[in-house]
Amino acid sequence: MINLDFGAVLQGQYLDWLIGGAFTSLGLFATSWICAFALAVIIVALRALDFAPLEWVIAAYVNYHRNVPGLVQIFVWYFGVPELLPSSITGFINEHNGEFIFALIALFLNAAAYMSEDLRSGLRSVATTQMEAARALGLSYVQTMRDVLLPQAIRVSVAPLVNQSLSLFKSTSLAMAIGVAEMTYSSRQIENETYRTFETFAIASIFYLLMSWTIMAVGAYYNRHLQVKER
């Protein structure tokens, strides 16, 4: 006989843990996405300079983040990098939610590598003569990238960027491995105390599904909005 009791996990401190985990997951995702997108734009602009040493460094960065598992990258930042930092900096970070900070750094660096490749593909779809035309009109390199080329590259890259956003959102669950109290961590904690495994992870699954659908809906709206403006 099936004996389900969702009320057992949706009350008291368990409900508080779920709400706190949800906010932490969303905060980690939103902050990581903003940092990743900004870094990806900078990377694409730098790669367009066609300067060989810079290209080698960026290619190494992208290859590392695309070929090393995200969980390993989080461990490198949380367990490895602090050993290279002065104790004063490590102490400061640990006093200010170090688990969250290192997870944030690992996640946004990883996402930026993928996003930069998507934006780079979008930039390649823009006619190279536009760069020459913009420079002939007197725009600087930065103005050309900011006002002419990158907006078009972003418009072309909406679909793959939505996919990267979904991947980044789901990857926030990896942060539980270093003790960030996001949704998966909170669910695991509740399951340990209540032994309501199905109910706990069903609620967590619904949360991830709803947020993923929201990200896809926002991406679809933005895509439609761009198509309307192009007419």
From TrEMBL:
Location(s) in or outside the cell: Cell inner membrane; Cell membrane
Residue ranges of domain ABC transmembrane type-1 in the record: 22-219
PROSITE patterns documented for this protein: ABC_TM1 (PS50928)
Cellular-component GO terms for this entry: ATP-binding cassette (ABC) transporter complex
Gene Ontology biological process: amino acid transport
Topological relation to the membrane, as annotated: Multi-pass membrane protein
Stretches that traverse the bilayer: 17-46, 100-116, 201-222
Keywords of the record: Cell membrane, Membrane, Transmembrane, Transmembrane helix, Transport
An example molecular function term from Gene Ontology annotations: transmembrane transporter activity
Entry's family note: Belongs to the binding-protein-dependent transport system permease family. HisMQ subfamily.
The name this protein goes by in its record: Amino ABC transporter, permease, 3-TM region, His/Glu/Gln/Arg/opine family domain protein
